[in-house]
Amino acid sequence: MRNTADVVVIGGGVHGCSIAYHLAQKGIKNVVLLEKNYLASGGTGRSAAGIRHQFGTEINIRLSATSIKMMENLAGELDYPHGIDLMQGGYMMLAYTESQLDQFKKNAEMQNSLMNAGTKVLSVDEIVRITPALNTEGLVGASFNKRDGHVDPFHVTQAYADAAKRLGVEINTRTEVVDIITEGNRVTGVVTGKGEVISTPAVVNAAGPHGAIIGKMVGIDIPLYPERHQILVTEPLEMFLPCMVISFTHGTYFKQTPHGSLLLGVGDPEHEVKDFNQESTWQFLEDVARKITYHMPALKNVRIVRQWAGLYDITPDSQAILGKTDIEGFYLDVGWSGHGLQLGPVVGKLMAQVIAGEKPDIDISVMSIDRFKTGALIPEPACV
Length: 384
Ligand SMILES: Cc1cc2nc3c(=O)[nH]c(=O)nc-3n(C[C@H](O)[C@H](O)[C@H](O)COP(=O)(O)OP(=O)(O)OC[C@H]3O[C@@H](n4cnc5c(N)ncnc54)[C@H](O)[C@@H]3O)c2cc1C
What we know:
The protein is an alpha/beta fold. 29% of the residues lie in helices and 25% in strands. It is globular and about 60 Å long. The mean pLDDT is 96. The structure holds flavin-adenine dinucleotide (FAD).
């Protein structure tokens, strides 16, 4: 392992790998990425990997529209032979109340005026034309963008990692960061669990739900906690669901993967404790079965083949924390809650610009950790 680096990136999820690639691409090639497990072993590989323009805050709309454009050319740009399984069959957000539909209309207007996103608000008849299997009971409409959809999170991460390595980045898996060395107010090195020390003037915390533990290593309190979210996968079925579907009312989302299986998720934040438990539960199986057969009654006898759990990294406003900190050379890219996979491409690029001392293409200063001192939170109306 190298013992000096221009930048050390902690975390081999989509954000860490994208940052490492974008640093190397701009000529900062002595980058070392440290991942305590394997690449995409965190939230990234456990994600539903939905991508959508359909957010309700200016910053998320700018980030997501730019990231989706990047995803559309990603395999080519990174010379990744396997492709990233980008499926752009659309993303449908179901509205069960008039006030929810009004909010979706406002969101769609903002998406279309800021980024020409092409988001539409659908009537119930239009919903049925796209997804005939859906139970329309209680539905009043939906928001839909046909360029939304989903990707394979492992491929996206691996594509960045492979391209980063070709540019000279060193990626070390099974290597945990146990301490960060500071002198005065600045970062000078990183210590691994194997006892190696890497001297470096810059460290990026892209450790997802473990981000607060990394923050403590330099004496910074990052308001961030882990929250378990579970997913279930069915046997493969003939393709019948062209788009990803989400209901904020029921806390449910689902998609059909290229392999034909359905991937179903239900959040249960009220009953989750704030710890790192990633066990799957029976209770979740029952809850999903009930909720999904409500949305799509035809799924009643479909077999479940597996389930898994992952962690969201939640902040007080469920928005990420990005950029510099009071410790010189210590940067943050954490707190992505349930929507960070899709933003990995763009945020990796913006973070590399910030670390290189450049003005980022999109102003991400609203996402600074300072907002928790000033109270300038960013409530996002389109999040689970
Ligand atoms: C069930 C579920 C569904 C989701 N669905 C979606 C979705 O549909 N769309 C979407 O955009 N997002 C979704 N997300 C959120 C998304 O997965 C995350 O926001 C995103 O993957 C965060 O990426 P990351 O690289 O920041 O963090 P992670 O992928 O969590 O990576 C952090 C890495 O840091 C490593 N690490 C931690 N501590 C250390 C240490 N001390 N030393 C070395 N390495 C360390 C971890 O092992 C981990 O690999 C979902 C998440 C979950 C759990």
